[in-house]
Amino acid sequence: MWATARILILSGSLALCSATARAQVPGIDVDAGAVPPEVAKSIVDAVTRAVGAIARLADDQDAGESAQLLRRADAAAQAALATQGYFTPQVVLTPGKDGQGKPVWRIALTPGPQTTVESVDLRFTGRISRPEYADRLAGWRRDWALQPGRPFVNADWSRAKSDLLQAASDQDFATARIVASSADVDPESARVRLAMTIDSGPQVRMGALQVRGLKRVPRSLIDHTVRYTPGDAYDQDKLDRWQQALQSTEFFRGAFVSLDKSQLPASPDGDGDVTLPLDVRVVEAPPRRAAVSLGVDDTAGVRLESTYRQNVVFGLPVTLSTGIGVDRLRQRAFMDFLLPPNANGDKDSIGVLADRSDVQGLQVTRFALGATRLQERHACCDSRVDYETRWGALVSHDHVKIDGGETYDLPTATLTAEWLRRDVDKKYDPREGNLIAVGGGVGAALDSGRPYTRVHLRGQQWWPVAERDVLMLRGEVGRVWADARTRVPDDFGFRTGGARTIRGYSYMSLGERRGNAVVGAPVLAVASLEYDHYFNERWGVAAFVDAGDASSSFASLHPAVGYGVGARVRTPAGPLFFDVAYGQRDHQLRVHFSLGIAF
C-alpha cells in the first residue's frame, strides 16, 4: 500500500499576508536530512524546482488562498521526490521569514528508503526475435543501465528505454518501436519491477539512392561519398558518416542522409524484410568566395593577404583555392586543388607555390609542386580528443642567397608526416588540456642525391587556475641528420626567436651563423612558461619566461632566456597578444604584437 506524506503548516502562516495585500515570492530552503551526500543534491534540486514553480504564484494569492497554495507545494515536493525513487517521504513545510524579513518556505525532508530495481523483463518481438540475433539481444540485456539492485530514478528509467530503442533502431530495424513498458513500484518494500517490450518490425534494407537539391555540384560527388550496394542492410552509423562527410566539404551548406520511410508499406510483414530508398538532401554552398585581410605585427610589419575559392572547377567536384600574401619579409602566391574526401574521410590536395623570403640575411626563392593527405579522427564516444595526421610530398627548387656568403640552387624532393593529438576545452583559445605533435621527414638533394632526415616534437599543456586564469607550459625539440656536405632546405633546418617562440629576440635570429646571416641549424630545444590573469572574460595580463636555442648539436646549445609581461584580449577570432620582453643574451627590450582584420 502506498504510504502518504504528511505536511505540517504552522497556524500562524496565514498572518504572512492579508486579504488586501499581495505577498512577496518566498524563497525556498530545503533540508534533505540524513540523505547520503551523493544523492542529496539531486533531491534538493528536484524539490526546489518543483516547489519554486508553486512559490512564484504567491504574489497573486490572498490570505484565503494561501493554505491551498501550500498544499499544492506539498504535493509538488512529493512528486519531485518520487522522480528520484522516494515513494514514502515525509515533508514538513514551514512558512516563515529569513534574517532580512523576507518570506521563505522551509522544507524539511525525511525521504525514506530509495526504491531499487528488483527485476527487469526485456522482451522483443518481430524479426529480431529470430535465433540469429540472439547474441545482439544478450548484449542489450547485459548493457541495460538499470540492472537489479540499482536505484530507481525516473530520468534514468526514461534514458534506459530511449537508449535501448536507439540501439535496436540503429542497425537493421529502422522501424523498431516500444509497444509496452511498465514500472511496478511497491512502496512498502521499496522495490520496483521493470518491464519493456520492443517490436523490431521487419529487417530494413537500403534501396535506390534519391538525391535532391543539386544544381551546380555534379551527382558524382554524392556517389563518391555515399557508397553502398542496393539491398545492403540498413546501418545508421553509415548514414551518419556519409552525412558528416558531405557536410565537411566546401560544396554544401547542409546535407541530410536518411531512409525514406514514406515508402514503408502500410502493413509490413513484421517477420520479413523491406527495402526503403535512401534519401540524400543537400543545400549547395555559394560557388565562389573571395576574402582580403590586412594585418600588422612586430616582425613583418603590414601584411596583406587575398584568397579566392571556387568549389566546382570545369564541372568537376574539386575546390580551387588560390591567393597571394605580401609583407616586408615574405611574398608568396599559391594555387591548390582540394579533392573531395575519400571513403575513409581523408582529404587530399595538390598545389603549386611560389615563395620568396628574406629573414635574418637568408634569402630564399622557392618554386614547388606538392601533394598532401589530411586524416582527421575523433576519439570514441564523448571524448574531446581529436587526432590529425598529415602526409606530404614536395618537389621544390630553391634559389638561396646568404648575405656575406654563398649563393646556390637547391633542387630537392621530400616526404613528410605529422601526427597531432589535441585534448583541449576550446580549440582556438584553450584554458585546460594539452596538445602533442610528432613530425618527421626524409628527403634528398636532386642534384647530388645526398639524403637528409628530420624529427620534430612539440607539446603544450594548459592548467586552469581560479575562475579565469590559466597556466601554460610549452616545449619543443628537433633534430636534423645530414652529412657535412649536404645542403638542407631552409624549412628543414631550425631557427627560432620572436613571438610564440622565444620572446625578447628578433624573429628567427637564433640559429647557426653563416656569413652575415642566420641559417637553419641541426638541433632545436625551446621551453616556455606563462601565467595569464583575466580581469573579465575579455581583458587580461600575462607574465612569462622563455628559453631555448638552435645550434649544430645539443652539446653546443646555449639557451637564450627571455622574460616579460603582456596584455591579452579575447576576440571572436581568437586571442590577441601584446608582449614586452627582455632578451637576457642581447640585453635588449623588445615588443611583440599581432593584429589582423579580415574583410
How would you describe this protein?
Residues 1-22 have low confidence and may be disordered. Helix 1 runs antiparallel to helix 2 (63-83). A 16-stranded antiparallel barrel has the order 10-11-12-13-14-15-16-17-18-19-20-23-24-25-26-27. The longest helix is centred in the N-terminal third of the chain and has 21 residues, at 63-83. The protein is built from six helices and 27 strands. It folds into four domains: 11-110, Ubiquitin-like (UB roll) (Roll); 116-199, membrane protein fhac (Ubiquitin-like (UB roll)); 203-284, membrane protein fhac (Ubiquitin-like (UB roll)); 329-598, Porin. It is mostly beta strands and 599 residues long.
What's the pLDDT, averaged over the residues?
88
What structural class do the secondary elements suggest?
mainly beta
- Provide the CATH topology of the largest domain: Porin
Terminus-to-terminus distance: 72 Å
The top-level CATH class of the largest domain is Mainly Beta
Task: Give the count of structural domains.
Answer: 4
Number of helices: 6
What's the CATH architecture name of the largest domain? Beta Barrel
Helix content: 10-25%
Principal-axis shape equals globular
What composes the largest sheet? 16 strands, antiparallel, barrel
- Proportion of β residues? over 45%
Strand order across the largest sheet? 10-11-12-13-14-15-16-17-18-19-20-23-24-25-26-27
Defining traits:
single chain; 599 residues; mainly beta; Ubiquitin-like (UB roll); 16-stranded antiparallel barrel; three-stranded mixed beta sheet; globular
